[in-house]
Design goal:
The protein is α/β, with parallel strands linked by helices. The chain has helices at about 20-30, 80-85, 100-115, 135-155, 170-185, 190-200, 225-245, 290-295, 295-320, and strands at about 10-15, 50, 60, 85-95, 120-125, 160-165, 205-210, 215-220, 265, 270-280, 285-290. Helices cover about 40% and strands about 20% of the residues. The strands form 2 sheets. A 6-stranded mixed β-sheet has the order 2-3-1-4-5-6, with helices on both faces. Strands 8-7-11-10-9 form a 5-stranded antiparallel β-sheet, sandwiched between helices. The chain binds guanosine-5'-diphosphate. Guanosine-5'-diphosphate (GDP) binds near residues 22, 127 and 129. It comes from Champsocephalus esox.
């Protein structure tokens, strides 16, 4: 099974103080837990490797700082772990006093940067659902200022932090995760280009390429993303997968809720059509288009067929590790 290792999938570490919201983020984004259920989650207290690599395009791990995880501990092989990491997400609880979190952030990113300066450092200012809009902006500015001052004091001006305001109670956490994942994809410009070509030849208004399990979009065409369209497409994936899980499996529960044949069309009451098609084992295309454009369904299907083929080629070529095996099963 060497060929299906997740070595070339985007690898993400989720870190932060205890109770900052890491397990909640992981459960909501990757395991379809509803935000309210996270109130009853037990706090994580060790390095936790979530095995989603067999079901998602993304490969990620959670690291906790309950206090005992110590960089000076010789058994703690930060070297090895940071080397293989594409992005490090540090979660800060914005509803709490964040002085200690900022100290930890500094310690963590400066350590990781020394091991691997190519890591993307992403800071989730989390639980902002409890904050007013003004307060959100102030908090973001304050965290930005303090974190960068400390980096400057340590001569680490080159270390760049990207900040996001997130909450599990709306789509902001999915949106932030999407940005984090997209930065790790060398194929992103190609994917965007293919999406642009596909929509312009098919009369489609907006198209997202989704990781089905997490509802992270790994690419979209270059027209601006409005949150409402994104949410609509997320909802469509939920509906399709839920219906498929309930009515699509065999009596004994075997079968697959998402496979090559997966596709769906939903007509909305405002003359808009949502259209979903399987692209790979993990990825689906979800489009928004006008009803009139959908009259040329044959054309759209033909264009989709070409698009799908191109996507398969992109990942096969991009992943081929020196004549090893074709990694199309990595998709
Ligand atoms: P961990 O120790 O970092 O894994 O933190 P948990 O995931 O256990 O979360 C701690 C608490 O924060 C839980 O009670 C969650 O319900 C809550 N929480 C997580 N994310 C959010 C959020 O976006 N908004 C709010 N208001 N609470 C959150």
């Amino acid at each position: 099974e060497n060929c299906s290792t997740s070595a070339d999938k985007p690898r993400i570490l989720l870190m932060g103080l205890r109770r900052s919201g890491k397990s909640s983020i992981q459960k909501v984004v990757f395991h379809k837990m509803s935000p309210n259920e996270t109130l009853f989650l037990e706090s994580t207290n060790k390095i936790y490797k979530d095995d989603i690599s067999s079901s998602s395009f993304v490969n990620f791990q959670i690291w906790d700082f309950p206090g005992q995880v110590d960089f000076l501990d010789p058994t703690f092989d930060s070297e090895m772990i940071f080397k293989g990491t594409g992005a490090l997400i540090f979660v800060i609880d914005a509803q709490d006093d964040y002085v200690e979190a900022l100290e930890r952030l500094h310690l963590t990113v400066s350590r990781a940067y020394k091991v691997n300066p190519d890591i993307n450092f992403e800071v989730f200012i989390h639980k902002v659902d409890g904050l007013s809009d003004d307060h959100k902006i102030d908090t973001q500015r304050d965290i930005h200022q303090r974190a960068n001052d400390e980096l400057a004091d340590a001569n680490l001006e080159k270390l760049h932090l990207s900040l996001y305001l997130t909450s599990i109670y709306d789509h902001s956490i999915f949106e932030a995760f999407s940005k984090v994942v997209q930065k790790l994809l060398p194929q992103l410009p190609t994917l965007e280009n293919l999406l642009n070509i596909f929509i312009s030849h098919s009369g489609i208004e907006k198209a997202f390429l989704f990781d089905v399990v997490s509802k992270i979009y790994i690419a979209t065409d270059s027209s601006p993303v409005d949150m409402q369209s994104y949410e609509l497409c997320c909802d469509m994936i939920d509906v399709v997968i839920d219906v498929s899980c309930i009515y699509g499996l065999m009596q004994d529960g075997s079968g697959c809720a998402y496979d090559k044949e997966s596709s769906a069309i939903i007509r909305l009451n405002n003359s808009t059509v949502l259209y979903l098609k399987e692209v790979t084992k993990f990825l689906a295309l979800v489009c928004i288009l006008r009803e009139e454009s959908f009259e040329r369904k044959g054309l759209i299907e033909y264009n989709f067929h070409c698009f799908r083929k191109a996507i398969h080629e992109v990942f096969e070529v991009g992943n081929l590790p020196q004549g090893a095996c074709s990694s199309s099963n990595n998709l």
